[in-house]
Amino acid sequence: MPSVELVNGLAERLAQQQTLVLDGAMATELEQRGCDLNDPLWSARVLIEQPELIRAVHLDYLKAGADIITSASYQATFQGFARRGYDHAQSVALMQRSITLALEARDEFWADPANRVGRQRPLVAASVGPYGAMLADGSEYRGHYGLTIEQLMDFHRERLAIFLNAGADLLACETLPCPEEAIALGRLLAEEFPQAAAWISFSCRDAHHVSQGERLDKCLAQLAGFAQIVAVGVNCSAPEFIDSLLDDARAASAKPLLVYPNSGETYDPTRKCWHGSAGDDSFARMAATWHQHGARLIGGCCRTTPADIRAVTALLRPH
C-alpha cells in the first residue's frame, strides 16, 4: 500500500512542476482502436477480452507526456462482473489486472533512459468510478442514488483495498455526481485506509453545479478536513463550463485543483452515443486557460486522445 508520504509527494511534484499532465480518455480511445464497448462493462470489457490494448493506450499517454495515468477500472465492480457470470475471485483478479496493466506500461516506459530526460517517474492512479457507473444507466450524470453515506462506503470499500494492494500509487475517485459519495470516500480513506491518497473529481451539469444539483463550491468545502484527498476538481464535463467551475473551486478549496473535461461533444447516456463535435479551439488552448484559472493537474476525459495530451504537454511544459 502506498506510503502516507505520497500525500506530501504529490505536493512536492507540484512544487517542482507548475502543472502535472494527466492522461486522456481510455474507453473512447479503445473504441478508436476497434473495440466494441457497447456493453454495461464499458472499458472493463477489454480487461477480459483484449488487455494488451489497454496497456498500449497507457503507454501512448506516457509517451505523450502524461505524469499520471489512470487505470481502466472505472466500471470494474463486483456487481458488474457478476452480471457477466464472473464470481468474486474472478472479479478480484480482473480488478487487479487493471492496475497491473498500468504498472507494466509505466515500467516499460521508464525502462528507456531516453524517456527519463526531464521527467519524474509517472504515477499510476486507480480509477474509482462512482456507484452510478455500476448501474450503467447514466446515473453518474444525475446522482440521487437514494443511498446513505454508509451504504456508499460499503459499495466502495473492498474495491479500494484491491486497487491499493495491487500497487496503485493513488486513487482517482472520479465522475462523482453528488457530495454524499465524495464524503463516503473521504471517510473510508480516513477510517480504513490511512496510508492512501486520492483525488476527488465531480461531474458537473453547468458552470456552477455538480450533476445532482448542488453547487460545486459547497461540495468542495465539505472535503476540506480530509487530508488524504490531495486534489479536487472536475472531470467528464463540458469544456465551456470549466473556467467558471475553477473560479468557484479556487474560492472554496485550498487543495490543488484538477480538471480533465470531455472533448466538447455531448454524451447521450440512454442511447450510449456521442453527438456534436469538439469546440473550435484546440483542447490545448483551452487547457492553457484552465491553467490560468488555477488548475494544477490537467488532462482529458471522454473523446480526448494521446494527441490532445501531447499538445497539452507541449503548451504547458515546453522544453
Automatic annotation (TrEMBL):
Keyword Protein transport: no
Cited InterPro entries: BHMT-like (IPR017226), HCY_dom (IPR003726), HCY_dom_sf (IPR036589), Hcy_S-methyltransferase (IPR051486)
UniProt-listed Pfam families: S-methyl_trans
Binding, Zn(2+): C236, C301, C302
Keyword Oxidoreductase annotated: no
Co-factor remark: Binds 1 zinc ion per subunit.
GO molecular function: S-adenosylmethionine-homocysteine S-methyltransferase activity; zinc ion binding
Names of the cofactor(s): Zn(2+)
GO biological process: methionine biosynthetic process; methylation; S-methylmethionine cycle
Domain Hcy-binding: 8-316
PROSITE patterns recorded: HCY
Assigned keywords, A-Z: Metal-binding, Methyltransferase, Transferase, Zinc
Protein name: S-methylmethionine:homocysteine methyltransferase
